[in-house]
Specification:
alpha+beta; Arc Repressor Mutant, subunit A; 4 helices; 3 strands
């Protein structure tokens, strides 16, 4: 998948949220931060991972394991460009 991945709903929000949280974000927290349906966010995460823009790892919190999503190097570069565009256009 090429550039069309960032045209899909929630892709830009996910990438920018991860850029703002370089240590990574748990899936549930990411869903809360980007809003919308969990189904859309989870589907988009899979597509972004397939495109090499995000990766996941499991971290232990208390007695459970949580999935933590982070940007890949490629994803960070794309997210930084999106942040520049957001700055030029005056988005938040």
């Amino acid at each position: 998948m090429g550039v069309e991945i960032i045209e899909k709903p929630k892709s830009v929000s996910i990438l920018l949220t991860l850029l703002d949280n370089p240590e990574g974000v748990g899936v549930r927290s990411l869903i809360d931060k980007v809003g919308g349906s969990a189904t859309t966010t989870i589907s988009r995460l899979k597509e972004l991972e397939d495109a090499g823009l995000v990766s996941h790892k499991f971290i232990r919190t208390n007695k459970t394991w949580s999935k933590c999503i982070t940007l890949t190097e490629k994803g960070r570069k794309v997210a930084e460009l999106l942040a520049q565009i957001r700055g030029i256009l005056g988005g938040n």
